Amino acid sequence: MRLSVIGCGYLGAVHAAAMADLGHDVVGIDVDEAKVQSLSAGRAPFHEPGLPEVLEAGLASGRLRFSTDMADAADADVHFIAVGTPQTAGSDAADLTYLEAAVASLLPHLKPGALVAGKSTVPVGTAERLAERIEAAAEGAELAWNPEFLREGFAVKDTLHPDRFVYGVRSQRAADLLDDVYRQAIDAGTPRIVTDYATAELVKTAANAFLATKISFINVMSQVADATGADVTVLADAIGHDARIGRRFLNAGLGFGGGCLPKDIRAFAARGEQLGLADSFAFLREVDAVNLRQRERLVAAAVEALGGSVTGARIALLGVTFKPDSDDVRDSPALDVAERLHELGAEVVATDPYGLPNALRRFPALVTASSTEDAVRGADLVVLATEWREYRDLDPAATAVLARHARIIDGRNVLDPAAWRAAGWEYRGLGRR
Ligand SMILES: NC(=O)C1=CN([C@@H]2O[C@H](COP(=O)(O)OP(=O)(O)OC[C@H]3O[C@@H](n4cnc5c(N)ncnc54)[C@H](O)[C@@H]3O)[C@@H](O)[C@H]2O)C=CC1
Ligand SMILES: O=C(O)[C@H]1O[C@H](OP(=O)(O)OP(=O)(O)OC[C@H]2O[C@@H](n3ccc(=O)[nH]c3=O)[C@H](O)[C@@H]2O)[C@H](O)[C@@H](O)[C@@H]1O
């Protein structure tokens, strides 16, 4: 099939390359010329495992190209919309200006019967509002909402082998077209839920709200653990054995960040309040507040570990991205902690396998080190803020030799406290004895 993907960021670039990998003829459209040039040259504009390979294969096959010119999408049978829907400046609502602009520039190029499939995360009611304009733009043209559930770091795998597909559609034909796009996964038995626009939009925001709630729940448990001498990791393992609860997304620590969970729960709460459900959505506001407090808790733990003040102390920060296997620093808890410790007078030296260029764009005063050894050398305190594999695998004895004072705060609760203490470290986790 001929497909276009409009918006080639973390979601769209992967979607375009993965669709070409499935054998479709794909054009990726983006307004960012540098991004289009980079993608056209086979260079992934961000770190995502597996993307360089599918990108290169797609370009080499001739089935994948990128352009800034919407006219190049005119041939497509299905247009995926993957532009950003960030938090609006000064409010919690989703900013839909990129979506509006993308749809407006696509309309004149729609061919009869074309399907526009929204993948961006939007407030419930958005598709209903756009549908009429799309239907009026070309004979038989229609809109589907087909939200995306991929995780950064696993984006290619999640796109090719998702847990489920969700189609918000108004016709069987739209569902059939999406089935044709995803034929291989559908034939392999991937569940698909065919529903209306509102439900499809809500499935996406509800899923992210649930995941965020799970994380904030366990982070509250980590506070109780700190107050009582219990261990939140053991608690999570134990409750996680109950299949109704499940162990995943019960890792207490610095909490969630990134370009999605934080802004999506805020937009969902704002939409809920608009719908007259402010009382009920108070819980989601609290999920957000608990999450942000975890960053303060870590800063407070650093102050305490350093005897009441971080001023003048050298603090090695391991990890700046919002999660491992991504270079994304949007709403990164690690970077927030770095900024706060810096404000308090600490000399923060940060390291990260892929995130430093983005971190420096957001926080130019950040002092960076290109290796873990250089970051830790001479440190009064080490803070593990993002659980990259290489930090999880650090040898406590070899690392102790580098630090001035062998003190560590494990902001992701991923190290073995006994092993680190045995190597002479003063170890603290969040909610861990
Ligand atoms: N990043 C992720 O893991 C996931 C993101 N999403 C959702 O997907 C959407 C996109 O997110 P990201 O890819 O992370 O954002 P992003 O900011 O990385 O990418 C958005 C892209 O859209 C482009 N763009 C903006 N206006 C445009 C226009 N008028 N025409 C063409 N291109 C335009 C931008 O230049 C940018 O490259 C958001 O709604 C997000 O919530 C959903 C699931 C996963
Ligand atoms: O809508 C989106 O964009 C995506 O948002 C999340 O994906 P992502 O942001 O890539 O990353 P996650 O793996 O969900 O992690 C989010 C944050 O939660 C934190 N987290 C995760 C799990 C956990 O147990 N504890 C915890 O603090 C991570 O460190 C990270 O900062 C969802 O998992 C995806 O399904 C969704 O498609």
Automatic annotation (TrEMBL):
One of its GO terms (molecular function) is oxidoreductase activity. Signal peptide: none annotated. Coiled coil: none annotated. Residues 316-417 form the UDP-glucose/GDP-mannose dehydrogenase C-terminal domain. It catalyses: UDP-alpha-D-glucose + 2 NAD(+) + H2O = UDP-alpha-D-glucuronate + 2 NADH + 3 H(+). The keyword tRNA-binding does not apply. Pathway: Nucleotide-sugar biosynthesis; UDP-alpha-D-glucuronate biosynthesis; UDP-alpha-D-glucuronate from UDP-alpha-D-glucose: step 1/1. InterPro entries: 6-PGluconate_DH-like_C_sf, NAD(P)-bd_dom_sf, UDP-Glc/GDP-Man, UDP-Glc/GDP-Man_DH_C, UDP-Glc/GDP-Man_DH_C_sf, UDP-Glc/GDP-Man_DH_dimer, UDP-Glc/GDP-Man_DH_N, UDPglc_DH_bac. Pfam families: UDPG_MGDP_dh, UDPG_MGDP_dh_C, UDPG_MGDP_dh_N. Keywords: NAD, Oxidoreductase. The keyword NAD applies. Its EC number is 1.1.1.22. It comes from the Bacteria. NCBIfam families: NDP-sugDHase. Belongs to the UDP-glucose/GDP-mannose dehydrogenase family. PANTHER family: UDP-GLUCOSE 6-DEHYDROGENASE TUAD. This is UDP-glucose 6-dehydrogenase. It comes from Leifsonia williamsii.
